[in-house]
Structure formats: C-alpha cells, structure tokens
Amino acid sequence: MLPDKATDLLYSSWQTLIPSLASPHLKYSEQTLATALDITPNIISACTTLSCTQKHTSITCLFFDSKFSHFRFYTMLMNEQLGFMSIDVLTCKCSTLPQVLLHHGLFPTAPSQPHMAVSVKLLLFYRALFKQSCDAINALVSALKTHYSHRGFIMTDAQVSIS
Questions:
Q1: Fewer C-beta neighbours within 10 Å, C or N terminus of the chain?
Q2: pTM of the predicted protein model
Q3: SS3 (DSSP) at 26
Q4: pLDDT at 81 over 60
C-alpha cells in the first residue's frame, strides 16, 4: 500500500523543515544542558534585529515539568488544562514559527502553521522511557514466568507447546 498524495506532501514538508531546525535545536540544547527548567514566557520571539515587522500567532503548548507563576498555574487549574498553556509567538523574517518555538524549547506538531507545540524536554523524557520500556516489559514477562512456574503453572506459547 502506497501513501496518498497528502501523506507525501506532509512528509516532504517535514523533510524541508527539519534541516532549518538543527541550529536552533543545538543552541537550545547547549543553553539548557544541566540547568533547571525555565518558565516559558507568555510571549516568545527570536528576532535578532528587533526592527522586523512581526506576525502574532497563538500556540497551545504541552509542557513536561516547568515552574509556573502562581497566576499562570491558577489560570491553568481554572481551565482544567494542567500541562497545557497558550503562548503568543512573534515571528518575522529573522525566524520562522518553528524556529522560534524550538529556540524556546518547543517542537511544533505540524511543519507549517502549527497550532500546538510539545516541550522538547517532554519529548526527550518520552524517548528515554520508550528506549527502556522494552527492557521493562521483558523483565516483567520473565518475572511473571518465573513466578507462575514456581506456583506450578506451565507456560505455553501460541502453538501450545511448553516453553
């Protein structure tokens, strides 16, 4: 089964975008290595000249474990969206929307015109968890097999042969 045209277009968009995010990602990684998580401001920008005409976009962001101001935490509790926060992103000819997001530790959920972003720290935690989950599952299965074998239950595979 081949991907449809929309899937090919989306894939092509990501392929075009990813190289432009390498530098912002490396800078963000260098700046945040072995540091506490910062409070993400309500308005973010990465303009280097401060003289560009800026475009305003509102993005819903999913954070991992960030310090929140009391007002922002109260607002999130009232909206029942703990972990999610809406921020305003200012873009210009210096930095595209995905570049500004990554500059502030957020990864866009779409290659163009994203409406949501996910914390890079959350994605890194998920990756670490995913890498270890296979070991954890295998350990659990092995422990269960040993436990049930000691209790006298014989484990079988799909063909009902003794393993």
A1: N
A2: 0.71
A3: helix
A4: no
